[in-house]
Amino acid sequence: MKISITAATIAGALLASTPVHAVDPASLVAKSSLMQTGTAAADELNRAMGGQRDAVKRMDIYAKFEFSPALRPKLKAVFGNERPFPLVRSAGPKGQVIYTSKLMPHAYLDENGSAFSWSEINSRSVANKAGTTLDTKMSMQSLSVVGTATAAMLENLSGDFKETRGADGIWYGDFKAKLGSLAIRAADAGGTDLKEAVRFEDLAGYTSINRRGKKVDVVYGSSIQSIRFGGERVERANLAIRVVNLPAQAMADMEKELERLQHSGLPDDAQTVVMTKSVLGFAKGLLAKGVSIIVDDISASYRGNTASIKGRIDFDKLVETDFKSPTEFANKIVARLDLRLPVAMVNDVSRAVAGKQVDASAPNAAEQIDTAGKNLAAVVIGKLVNEGYALMEKGELRSTFELKNGKVTFNGKSVAVPSVPAPATAPAP
Length: 429
Prior knowledge:
With 429 residues, the protein is an alpha+beta fold. Helix content is 30%, strand content 41%. It contains ten helices and 19 strands. It has helices spanning 5-15, 26-29, 33-49, 55-64, 72-79, 248-262, 268-288, 326-331, 343-357, 365-386; strands at 87-91, 97-103, 106-109, 115-118, 121-127, 133-146, 150-165, 171-187, 194-212, 215-229, 232-234, 236-247, 292-302, 305-315, 333-342, 391-393, 396-404, 407-410, 413-415. The protein has a 19-stranded antiparallel β-sheet that branches. Helix 9 (343-357) crosses helix 10 (365-386).
């Protein structure tokens, strides 16, 4: 799930002076036998699929699959079971097929010093008789990873996926996930005591893939009801974006190409190279055929006020040569985004930043914070309004960001954009 740009901006301002030791996600998985065993299991399963991309047929293969004798002891050591996530196939009403799977609760101390523990994970999928519809629900109560300098804990994860396979072989439908909370703890530099650095609460994400005549629309969205860090709280963050006018036939062709590649017999490394080239070619083709990105909502709330971004991004008559030059590609982007920032939010964020910079033990600390906050807000607001980058309307700073023909404007005022150097010529293989 993505945190909105606005939320990230607010969080960045508030965290600018907060002394929190950097969280390094790589430290949780470096030299991890859990990750290595999981990767080996995924590789064996992928080979067993034989390039099959149909969701229902893949589950039928997995229901009968057994891991290699060499891998089973490792799976048992890490996951507590030689077949950690077994899939059971059973008959349902009206010719339906039901697939159920369960990962039992377990705790594991990795060789890198990280301790993993998880609750029971359940999954249930129901396919119709023809294998063209699939309804899946999954749930997990908790998962924790505790390292020497960082730790993460998530609670109440659930998913609900409803899919229908079209005649073109593409699976359309809705994919929704929820997470009750995600907390990240970190130790101060040189210390070992883990303290909560950031907490996300009530997260939700969704993706919808919908066929519309000869076109396909993809909807992405996410929301976070609370982000807590450094004594501050962003009350809500939201992201809602649509990618529209994707050619349905091009997506079907790409699906066939990927299936052909997986049946090609090429080594994995070679498949990756070819697949990357195919996907990039596919993406370029989509952009050249009139795909648009609609920003329905990127917003965040802080102390009762909400900043937001809305608009759209298009691509003007892209040709092959545009993809060879970052400058030429940028010249074909046509974007218009409406920006709204409450003045009260500027004041609140400025005061919060000032509070991090003033010695709280000073006799007149409150007065210093108040003065510094007001001065910082005045500078920000004054620069934006006096230099014409934004207008002040109904207690908000309002501006329209536009990008066209490589030129950027805010509220109609041009902004200098540094030129992008051309990529260096790649050496011949």
